[in-house]
Amino acid sequence: MTRHGSHGSHDSHVVTSSRSSDRSRLAVAALLVAGLLWGLTWIPLKYFGRQGLTGITLTMMSYGLVGLLVLPWIIYRRKIWWAQWRLVLMIALAGGLANVCFLSAIVHGEVVRVMLLFYLAPVWGVIGGHLFFGEPFTRLRVFGVATAVGGAVLLLGGPAVITAPPGIVDLFALASGMLYAAQNLFTRAADRTPLDAKSLVVFVGCGLMSSLILLGTGESIPHVSPILFGQLLAFAGIWMLTAMVVTAWGVSHMEAGRAAILLVFELVAAVVSAMWIAGERLDGMAWIGAAMIVTAALLETRPTPLTPTLSPRERVERER
């Protein structure tokens, strides 16, 4: 009987290990699919831009539309996030502005350049993590920040960036990365709020911020034909929601560092597809800058020794 039980335990371990391996492979496939979906998002965004939609109106009519769909669910679950409503509000505002800036940059700029400047987000995340969570500046992280900033300078023209400041599209791309990093910091701080609420409220923020900017700038909403409206619905309700759900599932079934590396596939998919389909090109200096930014992003995915992470409140109390 004991021997039989031993075999049973071994078989159970084999089955569990096999299931874990299968799930890991599925998670890898999910993140690669998600990276492809996010990386190719520029194609429908450029199409909508040619139909007369700006980054602001496109944010409102796509992401904001998803926000309207999920708003009842967020309100229904308000009891579980209300204790941290200020942080949830900041997640919505930062995420909404990040998407307005990113879509504006993609619609009006070069996809490769915009994506690379956006991928400076890990740099801003490192700085924000140090300021608000007391995370240490390790030598590796300092090297990563310096590498990313140097890569951005080369991408923007090297020494010429001093005499010829970046254009508005470049500034939108940089701002989108900064705001996305801020959104992630607020998301981490809201540690008692469920992930679904923190993820979905960003879409509500997109609708809110784009609407406020439209009112403030006086920009008119272009006429949208029934066919274009249907295309926007399909883009928001199928493409975007699928990418979001697949990303969330893949990240939740894989180690954080490995998942982050796979998500860089989004950048690869965007750059390669833009060069192949749109014929975009980088010169020699820009290629070096691109390599430096990707290297910095990959460095930030490396596992770091476990150190106690302080909440903003704990950090204030310790400094007193």
Give a verbal description of the structure.
The chain is mostly helical and 320 residues long. It has one domain. The chain has 16 helices and no strands. The longest helix is centred in the first third of the chain and has 38 residues. The N terminus and C terminus are likely disordered.
Task: Give me some keywords for this one.
single chain, 320 residues, mainly alpha, 16 helices, globular, disordered N terminus, disordered C terminus
Summarize the structure.
The protein contains 16 helices and no strands. With 320 residues, it is mainly α.
User: How much helix is in the residues?
Assistant: over 70%
Mean pLDDT: 81
SS strand fraction: under 5%
The stretches of 5 or more residues where confidence is low (pLDDT under 50) are 1-6, 306-320
Terminal residue distance: 64 Å
Largest sheet: none
C-alpha Rg (nearest Å): 22 Å
Order of helices and strands: HHHHHHHHHHHHHHHH
Q: Count every beta strand, where a strand is a DSSP E run of 2 or more residues.
A: 0
* SS-based class: mainly alpha
Number of helices: 16
Number of domains: 1
Oligomeric form of this entry? Answer: single chain
Shape: globular
Write the layout of secondary structure elements.
Blueprint: H1 2-39, H2 42-50, H3 55-61, H4 63-76, H5 85-108, H6 111-118, H7 121-133, H8 139-155, H9 160-163, H10 168-189, H11 195-217, H12 226-252, H13 256-263, H14 265-277, H15 284-299, H16 312-319
Helix pairs in contact: 1-12, 1-14, 2-5, 3-5, 3-11, 4-11, 5-6, 5-10, 5-11, 6-10, 6-14, 7-8, 7-10, 8-15
